[in-house]
Specification:
Layout lengths: L1 H24 L4 E5 L2 E25 L2 E7 L6 E2 L4 E5 L2 H36 L5 H34 L1 E3 L4 E3 L9 E3 L5 E19 H8 L5 H5 L3 E5 L7 E8 L9 E9 L10 E18 L4 E3 L2 E7 L5 E12 L3 E6 L7 E2 L13 E4 L1
Parallel strand pairs: 1-19
Antiparallel strand pairs: 1-18, 2-9, 2-13, 3-5, 3-8, 4-7, 5-6, 7-9, 9-12, 10-11, 10-13, 11-12, 13-17, 14-15, 15-16, 16-17
Length: 367
């Protein structure tokens, strides 16, 4: 029994020595930390909007008939006057020929009535006809002359309708998909039928809406600020484009939409690289003020959980402290404004967020 007690005592001593050695040899992890940057920052608020071509035009059919050809591909750039569609012209070609024949008949009748009238004027001098017959001859001549004018008007209308069988671009721009495919019947006589739309997107506009209250904050009660703030507004798109874009805001709606409490704003921008299309979604970063002492930290150092945004701060005892924060907008693509939760003197962990835990002792390395 005595030997058993001695053996157990030796085991306990050895175990205690081993545990102490592990504790003494445990490595304290290094973490990279940084202090927040304090800088003057222009504050923005992002609004969703869309791109619209400055000019567009519907291409319509004004006559009825079978759609024979489509002379462009959807999305093509077309020039003003370019033939886009043709409609079966037989009916309108026949109408032109009939109008031409009617005009010749009217001209022939006028020529006869004119000669008849001249003859009647000579005959009345010899008392060969009555004055009533002269008046009748003059009336027939005037009626024939009016018939010529009517025939010319009918011919012009028939020629115009025949011309509508060839549908041309009314302006230059990119042409949309056709609403009807070839072979379909177009009933354009009752009301013009839209066949496609041309978008002149050499210049475009960004259209978005802003809350009435936010607009007043942005203006700061001074309309003179409008020209200062509403220039070179940065734009972002769902997919990153090869070139960056900004807009000069040139239109503010004169009224507030009562159902939404918003004001419509439009901004002009050149589309010299032809990357912007009508209907594209755009985000407008609208400036509304300045924070002269904004607290900025690296956006990548911010974590998110069920409670919201947080960072890990290393306190004066070099222990990790879980710190909830309230954040603002992104700044210069990599920094985030912190509205609440940090001070300029705090040290926050910039990397290895997943390997540290709250309350852990660490060795902070400033970089």
């Amino acid at each position: 029994m005595r030997y058993l007690y001695l053996f157990l005592a030796m085991v306990l001593v050895m175990s205690g020595c081993h545990k102490k050695e592990k504790s003494d040899g445990e490595m304290v992890p290094e973490v990279q930390v940084a202090s927040p940057t304090v800088d003057s920052v222009t504050l923005h608020r992002t609004y969703p909007g869309y791109i619209r071509a400055l000019n567009s035009a519907d291409i319509v059919a004004r006559v009825s008939g079978q759609l024979l050809t489509q002379n462009y591909k959807e999305g093509d750039y077309v020039s003003k006057g370019q033939v886009l569609f043709t409609i079966e012209p037989s009916k309108y070609r026949d109408a032109v020929q009939q109008a031409q024949a009617a005009l010749k008949t009217a001209e022939s009748q006028y020529a006869y009535a004119s000669r008849q009238y001249e003859a009647m004027k000579k005959a009345i001098q010899a008392d060969a006809v009555s004055e009533m017959e002269v008046l009748q001859a003059e009336s027939s001549m005037n009626t024939a002359k009016a018939s010529i004018q009517n025939a010319r008007a009918a011919l012009a209308t028939a020629q115009e309708n025949l011309g509508y069988c060839t549908v041309r671009a009314t302006r230059s721009g990119h042409c949309s998909i056709a609403t009807l495919s070839t072979g379909n019947f177009v009933n354009g006589e009752g009301a013009p039928v839209t066949l496609a739309t041309i978008y002149d997107d050499s210049d475009v506009k960004a259209v978005f809406e802003i809350e009435d209250a936010q607009y007043e904050i942005m203006m700061n009660g001074n309309r003179a600020n409008e020209n200062k703030l509403l220039r070179a507004i940065p734009l972002k798109f769902q997919q990153v484009l090869p070139h960056s874009y900004s807009a000069d805001l040139y239109y503010v709606s004169p009224n507030v939409e009562t159902s939404t409490g918003t004001i419509t704003i439009e901004g002009h921008l050149a589309n010299k690289y032809k990357e912007l299309k009508d209907g594209m979604y755009v985000s407008v970063d609208l400036p509304y003020g300045t924070d002269p002492k904004a607290i900025l930290i690296k956006d990548a150092s911010i974590g998110t959980d069920q409670l919201g945004k947080y960072v890990y701060v290393v306190n004066d005892s070099n222990k990790v402290v879980y710190t909830p924060i309230e954040v603002g907008e992104l700044y210069q693509d990599s920094l985030r404004i912190v509205n609440k939760g940090l001070t300029p003197k705090d040290r926050y962990i910039t990397k290895a967020l997943l390997t540290v835990r709250n309350g852990e002792t660490v060795k902070p390395v400033t970089h």
